[in-house]
Amino acid sequence: AAQTPEWNRIVEAAKAEGKVTLYSGHVGVPYHPEVAKMFEAKYGIHVEILDLRASDLAERIRTEQATKRIAADVILNGAGTLWLMKNQGVLAAYGDLPDLGRLRADVEKDDARLPIYIQGYGIAVNTRLVKDGERPRSWKDILDPKWKGKILADDVRSLGGGSTMFATTYANFGREFHEKLATQDPQFSRTVRENARRVARGEFAIYIPFSLPDLLLNKNLPIAGITPVEGDVYAQFDLSAVKDAPHPNAARLLMNFFLSEEAQLVYVRSARVPTIKGLESKIPADVKDIVTAKLLGTSDPARIDADLKLANEIYK
Amino acid sequence: MPSVQLQNVGRRFGGVNAVGDVTAVVPNGAFVTLLGPSGCGKTTTLRMIAGLESNTSGVISIGDRIVSDPSRSLFLPPEKRNAGMVFQSYAIWPHMTVFDNVAYPLRLRRLTREDVRAKVMRALDLVQMTAYAERPAPLLSGGQQQRVAIARAVAFEPSVLLLDEPLSNLDAKLRDEMRIELRALQQRLAITTIFVTHDQEEAMALSDRIIVMRSGSILQDDTPEGIYFRPSTLKVAEFCTTSTIIPATVVASRPGTRSRVLEVRGDDWSGMVQSATDVVEGAGVSVIVRAESIRADADPASVSGDQDIRWRGRVEKNVFRGFRRTLVVRVGEIAFTVDAAPENDIRVDQEVTLSVSLKDTWSIPAAAAAASATETPL
Amino acid sequence: MPSVQLQNVGRRFGGVNAVGDVTAVVPNGAFVTLLGPSGCGKTTTLRMIAGLESNTSGVISIGDRIVSDPSRSLFLPPEKRNAGMVFQSYAIWPHMTVFDNVAYPLRLRRLTREDVRAKVMRALDLVQMTAYAERPAPLLSGGQQQRVAIARAVAFEPSVLLLDEPLSNLDAKLRDEMRIELRALQQRLAITTIFVTHDQEEAMALSDRIIVMRSGSILQDDTPEGIYFRPSTLKVAEFCTTSTIIPATVVASRPGTRSRVLEVRGDDWSGMVQSATDVVEGAGVSVIVRAESIRADADPASVSGDQDIRWRGRVEKNVFRGFRRTLVVRVGEIAFTVDAAPENDIRVDQEVTLSVSLKDTWSIPAAAAAASATETPL
Amino acid sequence: MLAALTLYPIGTLLYGSLSSAPPGQAGTLDFSGYGALFNAHTLSILAVTIGMSLLKTVLSLIPATILAWLISRTDVPARATLELLIGLPFFIPPILTAMGWAMLGNPTAGSINQVWQALTGATTPIVNVYSYGGVIWHLMQFTVPFAFILLVEAFRSMDPSLEESSRTSGASVFTTFRKITLALMLPALSSIAILSVIGGIEAFESPLFFGSPAGIHVVTTEIYDSINNRATPNYPYATALSFAVIALMALLVAWQWRALRGRSFQTISGKAFAPRPIELQSLRWLAFSFCVLNVLIFTVLPVLQLVVSSFSQYYGFYGWDMLTTSHYHDVLHSDLFWRSTINTATLGVVGATLTMILGSIVAYIVVRTTLPFRHVIDLIAWLPWMMPGMVLGLGFLWGFAVLPHAIGIYGSLWALLLAYLSLGTPLSVRTMSTAFSQLSHDLEESSRVHGASWALTFRKIVVALTMPSFSVGWILTFFMVFRELSASVLLYSVGNEVLPVTVLRLWEEGKAEDVSAVAVLMLAIVVVFRGFHLIMVKRWIASRT
Ligand SMILES: Nc1ncnc2c1ncn2[C@@H]1O[C@H](COP(=O)(O)OP(=O)(O)OP(=O)(O)O)[C@@H](O)[C@H]1O
Ligand SMILES: Nc1ncnc2c1ncn2[C@@H]1O[C@H](COP(=O)(O)OP(=O)(O)OP(=O)(O)O)[C@@H](O)[C@H]1O
Ligand SMILES: [Mg+2]
Ligand SMILES: [Mg+2]
Fold first, then answer.
1. Nearest ligand (C-alpha, residue C45)
2. Whose CA is nearest to atom 8 of ligand 2?
3. Nearest C-alpha to atom 2 of ligand 2 is from which residue?
4. What sections of the protein cross the membrane (chain D) (predicted)?
5. How far is ligand 2, taken at its centre, from the CA of residue C40, in Å?
6. What CATH number has the domain bearing residue D335?
7. Do C326 and C291 meet the contact criterion of CB atoms below 8 Å apart?
8. Distances from the Cα of A165 to the Cαs of A14, A80, A189, D349, in angstroms?
């Protein structure tokens, strides 16, 4: 990293602040504390992490801003949610960071949102119920009538993997794809965390969209993850600095640290796609397929309400 | 020890006038009994004195202090009145032992451990319950619970003692003993005591004064002898004594030794009776003769000469009651109740001569009797 | 109507032997009273008959049917025994009106609306509570609640009626009336009735037989007169009568009219007394004289000649009790209790002659008396 | 105090429901949230929710009442153990029992259906938990023990002679139960029924787990959608919906007042009584079987599953090779677990104690005094329970954040404590008012006369006499703190982590097995607590037997 004098001043100021608070809206990821430890070890600045569900996080930030009782310095959340928050005016620009240059060119970013990792969603199948040769290879394979009644899906009418998949596939394959999918009688479930297990237990043959990093959590179970030929649907997670944060310098320092190789590798090991260049050779073999899979696309935050409305129309 | 004064005290429950308009004074250190039929307002009166019920009208004072006066919104809470009370329902605390129940008021007064122990044991001794000190209260029989309630009320030597039928579940033997103990204690400590009972004999035996109530108001407030021998109304006579009431007409009136003497005439009989007041000739009176003062003789000749009035009638009933035998003797319209000795050999259907002497009679002008008869029943 | 039989019935509560070993028969249609001091097991016995408590030993039968026999694990539940019961705690249901309380057993028996109404009103009438039919039960005075409990127990004309101190909260007047009503009802319907009371006079007046209990066992099971005039033990005499007990030594023994007659000698006195059995010369006896059978005369000369024993003593107390006056007269070691007429003019500290006639005496061999004295208190 | 705890957060919500912008931001008065209520969709959701809640209440109260009565008033064998076991499922996190039942009763691979199909050769499943019935069944899983625990205490403090006099009047055990016992238990039953109905309306996990897949939508899922499934959360609609629920529930409470008015239910009289169990005779073992059956279905099944899962590598996949203690190892070696457990326990002890004290005082005022505003107070005490948790959580967040900066409640443990106090009060008020309405007045009066002030009497007589109920209320509120998520997640801060949030984290990380391990540890605490508690109650009663 470039050690400009200006940045050194920020490092010093950050150390003087002594602490930084991160609100994380991606509760299912246990890796932020690991990164925080590395950061603490390096700079001696204490990181406090508060895990909150995305909607709770948004509400807390909004309330803190409205009442000027600001506790959060940095937010980690889905890119779409942060986009909305940015529009509410509660985020601050992170300015120039020494390691910005490392970012891959193909990730979406703006002056307030710093991409950290990408999570890919594919298709999960029960390996006992679905023979090797019968596995769907494309998103469109699940429209085959033989899967009728055997598909478990995250509810596409509710925010999260389900709506992201809906928006992306709708944008890429058109309305027809979903009208057909609707006739397959997919069982919608909102208890996302249970779904992979339900497929593993044989309640259903197929589960979409399957968060591929979850394969690591289900190692010995009869479940396989498939990246469709069109590519994975994905969700991108970003960092943002909070407006009027109590520790603005530490916030920027922390954000920059997330772009470091050591931090990024933490997420790579959990089968998430890094947002910086030059890690290709360092991807462990067991997650290589997932991390390097082709990506189909993600949802457009500006269209959230419109997409939900469409989903509700198609899936009564 | 303070006196207790009630001035025009009343208590309404919605539409029900449980206590009407009671004015009475219980002097310092006196033992006064409230006597009256079930539902006449005895418990309510006691509760108002204790501060458990607020009187809706009138003034209650204990000693020099007004404790309740609704017209001035004055009300002293019960715990400030230093009264001991035995509830009609005992109100024994089921989560405590006998000892703890009795110790409760003492501990509230921050007595030392030893003092508490000593006083509790003394009180339990009084009610013959020392052997049960450690027994949980719910495992006692009814009478035992009642005795614990008495011990609790007296253990802390309150300045006013309020007792609501405290002996109703005890047998005669124990009741007699407890009466004596209670009276002795009351006199030793000079506690102003208000006692509610439904037992006339008990009221007579214990009290300095008796207040006879009915339908929420006072009929007579007098010494036991006054109530018994010289009832002011027929109701009092009926309630406090076992008497026969005979209508008669006054023939003449003259002063007697303790009261006036009337010469009266009834159906088939005539004689002299006592009366509180002069009654004009020709007016009606109700003659009252108490069961125990009537003699019943099978042989008219054996009636002694000092008996002033005589009737002849037929025995209708003969009930053995232990120390006495109650005869019902019919004389014309009237059924006389007569107490006889237990071994009496008078049989049902026998003809007997009833007689009574002047000093055992009493009479009340019929006007007063009629007035109290028209009183609406509660 | 069935009889009720108890054979060696007992009930233990943990370590406490509430009822020891009771054997008794209450004949078909009879009115039998359980009498005894507080805590002697009366309520427990009644509850066992009702089926609310299971006896730990012995056999209970109602009519020809054994209703409880723990040795054969036989137990008929209370609702099958068709017994009406008045509880010592009333057990009035607080969430119902007076009417509904009384109607409850009738409705269970599926009577028509009109029948229910008629029977409830008749029962309420019996206890003089018709005016309160629609009142919620908790708003009644203690005595009123007790009357509702009685109405409820009799309204459905049970074949066995179990009454646990049903009149304890009523005044003498009402109690007298209720007694008469209860007895009349019992005789009209010939309901086998077991009555618990602590009031000896009430027991005597109502009962066909009286069972005197103490510490969980039966002391005497006899007619009222038998209990009263010929108690089998000192305990019975002490409990059921107001008596003075005087130790004496037998000088001679001879048969009398109704019982044996003993010639006895005490401190400074001698005379004839009745006895159930022959007692050997020189043996000790306890002589029992009842308070109401002793005469007290200030003037020894006025004592009539048919009085068999005389004592001279000093009046210690004189308590007015309405229809009688209780004197305590000290003769040497012994304090005599004497009932006198209410207007008696004997004063405290006066010397009086006490006298009693042979027919009013009773005696119990000292051995038996000693035996019952060593009995451990409960 | 009460008003501050409940009216304040709810007031901010009311403001939120009427404002076009959320609190803290300038907005204009706006009735659109309420306007949106009046359409067929919302009304049908309200109808479905209430219908479901009523049904599960009725279905739960029947077994709960019978069980409570058997355990507290009869001589059923092994009562003490049964009492402990029947109450246990109340303390299992609903999400875990949901997983359990999903495995047992799903239409394709559920064990029940597989056994059924193997036995009969049928091809159609007999049960499907992803249905209306499934939601109700899962709700019952929680309601039966809840109602049971509260009812046992109510039954216990009843003068047996009230039942006995019915028996001698000719009523059988069961007629007596119906006509006297139940009638006398009306305050308790109706209070518990209302708690249960409201609880059902607020339930989130069951409809989410079993209802959503079947297309069943209820108020909570609707609120969840309106907050979470929009680009901008629609708070006016969410809060307006909550207030509609409150209005309906207030009708229910008013109905209870009417139904109970002017009657007395005092079953502990001044004439002390010994608690005598009813001898069931020949029915004893039948009753016992009934209890055991309940224990098997509602307790053994889920608890066993939980225990096995906590030792399995994967929840629901059993096999000897899958056994592991690593979940316990993980959990017990996590600083966060210990920190949040200690925080939660502290909050639980302090919160439950304060809640019960506050609740007792409120209950006393409502039941025992004739103060003019007591019904208003009663209703206020109900409010926090009537408000769906996720909305009320917002109320607290807004409420605490809007306070002047000098009052530093926001972000401190105090915020959580106050929220728990408010959330626990309805339960404590219900528990205690039921208990108080059973006490006859003379027991207090006799204490007052003998020199104890009102406060002393309250402590030494009223509370002491209702100690079993008080302690049950304490335990229920204590463990409520262990599972309250909606407010916790909005109010906790770093260092103030509480167990529900930690559990949420584990859950979101896909560690259902660790959650099971935590739940088993929690159940162990429950068993110790309840065991100790029951022994205390027994001793308290033994002091009367
Ligand atoms: N809370 C109440 N509401 C309405 N009426 C009541 C209430 N309490 C008592 N009463 C009525 O007031 C009257 C007087 O009751 P109180 O309890 O004082 O009678 P009591 O003289 O003690 O009778 P008892 O000898 O039967 O105990 C009764 O008729 C009773 O029914
Ligand atoms: N459940 C119980 N456990 C232990 N002892 C008991 C129990 N019930 C009653 N007792 C004891 O058994 C004895 C008999 O009680 P019971 O109630 O039968 O007396 P009782 O003759 O009715 O007395 P009372 O006239 O005072 O009502 C008493 O000493 C009582 O303390
Ligand atoms: Mg009374
Ligand atoms: Mg008794």
1. 2
2. B139
3. B139
4. 42-70, 82-104, 135-155, 176-201, 235-255, 285-308, 345-367, 379-401, 407-429, 461-482, 515-537
5. 7
6. 1.10.3720.10
7. yes
8. 40, 14, 14, 46
* Buried/exposed B347-372: b ≥16 CB within 10 Å, e otherwise: eeeeebbbbbbbbbbbbbbbebbeeb
Same domain, C335 and C215: no
C378 within a domain of the structure (yes/no):
no
From the list D269, D452, D545, the residue facing B79 with the nearest CB is: D452
Cα–Cα distances in angstroms (integers) from residue D23 to residues B134, C160, D35, D395, D407, in the given order: 62, 74, 20, 10, 18
| pLDDT in single tens digits along all 545 residues of chain D | 666 666 676 777 666 666 655 555 555 566 666 666 677 788 888 888 889 999 999 999 999 999 999 998 888 888 888 888 898 888 887 877 887 888 788 887 777 887 888 888 777 778 888 888 889 999 998 899 999 988 988 888 788 888 888 888 888 888 888 888 888 888 888 888 988 888 888 888 888 888 888 888 888 888 888 877 777 777 778 778 888 888 888 888 888 887 777 667 776 666 666 667 777 777 888 889 998 998 888 888 888 888 888 888 877 777 777 788 888 888 888 888 888 888 888 999 999 999 999 999 889 888 888 777 777 787 788 778 777 777 777 777 777 777 776 666 677 788 888 888 888 888 898 889 888 888 888 888 888 888 888 888 888 888 888 888 898 899 889 888 888 877 787 788 777 888 888 888 888 887 888 888 888 888 888 888 888 888 887 776 665 54
Pairing of strands C83-86, C160-164: parallel
Q: Does one domain contain both C30 and C161? A: yes
Domain enclosing residue D173, as ranges: 37-260+286-309
Among the bound ligands, name the one nearest to the CA of residue C86: 4
Q: What's this model's pTM, rounded to 2 decimal places?
A: 0.83
DSSP category for residue A186: P
Q: Are residues B39 and B119 in the same domain?
A: yes
- The two most distant CA atoms of chain B are separated, in Å, by 74
Q: Give me the number of domains chain C comprises.
A: 2
Domain end: D250, D278, D309, which one? D309
Peptide bond between residue A209 and the one before it cis (omega within 30 degrees of 0): yes
Nearest CA among C267, C358, C272, C360 for reference residue C312: C267
Q: Does D230 sit within 8 Å of A304, measured CB to CB?
A: yes
Instruction: Show the DSSP H helices in chain C as ranges.
Output: 42-50, 98-108, 113-126, 142-155, 172-189, 200-206, 224-229, 234-240, 366-374
Residue C142 and residue C197 share a domain: yes
Could you tell me if residue D22 is inside a domain? no
Report CB contact under 8 Å: D279, C162.
Answer: no
**Claim to verify: residue D368 and residue D483 sit in the same structural domain:** yes
How far C206 CA sits from the closest chain B CA (Å)? 8
**Is position B378 within any domain?**
no
Tell me if chain C has a CB within 8 Å of the CB of B241: yes
Within a domain: C104? yes
Our mutation pick for probing the ligand 2 site, out of C9, C35, C43, counting the most ligand atoms within 8 A of Cβ, is C43
Ligand 1 centroid–CA D462 distance in Å is 25
Its domain, for residue B184, covers 4-229
Same domain? D347 vs D433 = yes
CATH number of the domain that residue B80 is part of: 3.40.50.300
> Does residue D253 sit in the same domain as residue D349?
no
Count structural domains, chain D.
Answer: 2
Q: Which helix (H) or strand (E) holds D520?
A: helix D512-542
* Judgement on whether residues B189 and B307 belong to the same structural domain of the protein: no
Distance of CA C230 to the CA centre of its chain: 15
From the list D209, D225, D508, the residue facing A158 with the nearest CB is D225
Are C310 and C292 in the same domain? yes
Q: What's B354's domain CATH number?
A: 2.40.50.140
With respect to residue C340, please indicate whether it lies within any of the assigned structural domains: yes
Q: What is the ipTM of this complex?
A: 0.80
Residue D528 tokens read as 């110790």
- Say whether both D351 and D491 belong to one domain: yes
* A and C touch per CB criterion (3+ pairs under 8 A): no
